[in-house]
Amino acid sequence: MTTVACADNSLDTVLRGSYLSYKSEGMRFFHTGDFKRAIAWFDNAIELNPEDFESFLWRSRCHVMLGELADSLKDIDTAGTLEPNHPMGTFMRAETLYQMGEFEKALQVGGRKRL
Prior knowledge:
By secondary structure, the chain is mainly α. The protein has one domain (18-110): Serine Threonine Protein Phosphatase 5, Tetratricopeptide repeat (Alpha Horseshoe). The protein is built from 6 helices and 2 strands, in the order ββαααααα. The protein has helices at 19-31, 35-48, 53-65, 69-82, 87-99, 103-110, and strands at 2-5, 11-14. A hairpin with a 5-residue loop joins strand 1 and strand 2 (11-14). Helix 1 packs antiparallel against helix 2 (35-48). The radius of gyration is 17 Å and the shape is globular. Keywords: TPR repeat. InterPro entries: ODAD4, TPR-like_helical_dom_sf, TPR_rpt.
């Protein structure tokens, strides 16, 4: 917890490290190609908000980039319980299965509208 002075000279308590901040940092590290650091930030975001579909999705993408396909699939499974009809979840499941060499399954998933 950090305290900062406000414009009216009163002290305002600011909670740093909200899940949105963690998710934002995870996305920043993802886009710079530092997938391990991104995963650590998404871990923190998920710890604070385990219902955040997007954090699981981004962490899944990191795992794919690192070749950690089983971990990617776990995150996609969790994301699928949170947002079963989200098209990006379907895409990531198909992508992960494709990377695993499960081409038929990837095609089947890609043809569906849900995870």
